[in-house]
């Protein structure tokens, strides 16, 4: 999901686990596709190695594919062609577009329980999102919400750091502006770093966070007009535009510029995803983090999850299917390493552990998992989909001050209604 998340082509990676792994002739090969690269890819490989070392009966062989549309296209083609991997990672928000088309198999909760994992091990919102028509089609590894990071030194100098070393509570748009402006006085540049140019995902994540903070719903039912709260949407766009004043934050920056600015100490706060935490750790700045403040009454945060799915097998190998369950359970139980990368593990025993409680600043934003909001369900929505591109096409000029919020929002809804009138192509 982060700035290092793109790969060209595909890469098959053999097991790197060393002496604990059996020879290839003694173990079944479990094919596992995922879209994790950079630091996330290294962490995932470490969890794969650990699982291989623990399970002499199988060896997980991962294939890493490019994040975004190329990955989902190749996965759907492999499933439709009868040659999918035994296991794959998808963004949870994309599952709804695949399961109804028969490209994914349902999870057997009894078999999952045999491996020590049950519904009780997941936060309610994550578990609810894993279901389609009452059937579980994904098992989340994490939630990765849009959050706020802040520089504790700048906050302290600005007088907005509490005695607990956390940013003072911020509960309204006016108060957020005040905090940002106090930080801007310290940096001399900006109070907040937020980049969006050419990046529909960045625009959508912030918009949807504030939209849901109003308690507004967005329902996208196939064959029906989109159900949206136009007044709330326009108000959210107006508020975001008001922040882009070249004082609170730049009027026309991209995400890479925002990350560099915050890492360099030229702003006090950053709006971005948890996946950028390793970058900030490497920058060695005094770092705090929290869910994005509740400015409009209802705690809410945009988020997605990396989730395990079972691509449909035309000729199911029961032994490999059981291996898949064992591997997923082992990764969930060993996902503290995933927390170190910034993600919030979905497996609650990790979150409730003393070890996680001492992990900063991750433990300070872990509560975001209780207020997460996935994309509204539709075959065309979700991370890396055209949905966010359509939002950018309609809204970027609003952010830039070239179009009125009403114009941008109505254009986006018109596009949604065109898509809702069409059947799922999967």
UniProtKB/TrEMBL annotation:
Entry-linked Pfam families: SBP_bac_8
Gene3D superfamilies for this protein: Periplasmic binding protein-like II
Cited InterPro entries: Bact_solute-bd_prot1, SBP
PANTHER family per record: ARABINOSE-BINDING PROTEIN-RELATED, BLR3389 PROTEIN
Superkingdom of the organism of origin: Bacteria
SUPFAM superfamilies: Periplasmic binding protein-like II (SSF53850)
Protein name: Extracellular solute-binding protein
């Amino acid at each position: 999901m982060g700035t290092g998340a793109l790969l060209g082509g595909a890469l098959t990676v053999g097991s790197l686990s060393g002496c604990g792994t059996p020879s290839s002739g003694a173990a079944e090969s479990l094919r596992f596709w995922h879209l994790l690269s950079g630091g996330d890819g290294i962490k995932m490989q470490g969890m794969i190695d650990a699982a291989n070392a623990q399970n002499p009966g199988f060896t997980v062989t991962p294939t890493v594919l490019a994040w975004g549309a190329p990955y989902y296209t190749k996965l759907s083609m492999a499933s439709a062609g009868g040659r999918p991997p035994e296991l794959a990672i998808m963004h949870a928000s994309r599952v709804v577009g695949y399961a109804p088309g028969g490209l994914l198999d349902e999870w057997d909760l009894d078999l999952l329980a045999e491996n020590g994992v049950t519904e009780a091990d997941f936060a309610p919102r994550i578990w609810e999102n894993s279901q389609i028509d009452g059937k579980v089609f994904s098992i989340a590894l994490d939630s990765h919400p849009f959050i706020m990071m802040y520089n504790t030194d700048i906050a302290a100098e600005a007088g907005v750091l509490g005695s607990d070393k956390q940013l003072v509570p911020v509960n309204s748009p006016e108060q957020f502006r005040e905090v940002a402006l106090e930080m801007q006085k310290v940096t001399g540049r900006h109070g907040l770093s937020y980049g969006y140019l050419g990046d529909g995902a960045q625009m959508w994540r912030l918009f949807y966070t504030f939209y849901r903070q109003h308690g507004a719903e967005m329902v996208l039912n196939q064959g029906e007009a989109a159900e949206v709260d136009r007044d709330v949407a326009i108000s959210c766009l107006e508020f975001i535009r008001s922040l882009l004043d070249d004082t609170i934050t730049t009027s026309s920056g991209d995400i890479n510029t925002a990350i560099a600015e915050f890492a360099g100490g030229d702003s006090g706060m950053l709006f971005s995803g948890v996946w950028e935490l390793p970058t900030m750790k490497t920058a060695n700045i005094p770092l705090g983090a929290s869910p994005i403040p509740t400015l409009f009454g209802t705690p809410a945060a945009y988020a997605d999850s990396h989730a395990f799915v079972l691509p449909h097998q035309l000729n199911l190998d029961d032994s490999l299917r059981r291996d898949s369950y064992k591997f997923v359970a082992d990764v969930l139980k060993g996902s503290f390493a995933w927390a170190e990368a910034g993600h919030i593990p979905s497996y609650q025993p990790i979150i409730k552990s003393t070890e996680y409680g001492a992990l900063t600043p991750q433990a300070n934003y872990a509560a975001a998992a209780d207020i997460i909001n996935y994309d509204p369900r539709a075959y065309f929505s979700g991370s890396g989909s055209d949905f966010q591109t359509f939002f950018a096409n309609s809204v970027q000029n609003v952010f830039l001050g070239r179009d009125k919020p009403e114009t941008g929002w109505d254009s986006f809804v018109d596009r949604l209604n065109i898509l809702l009138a069409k059947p799922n192509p999967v």
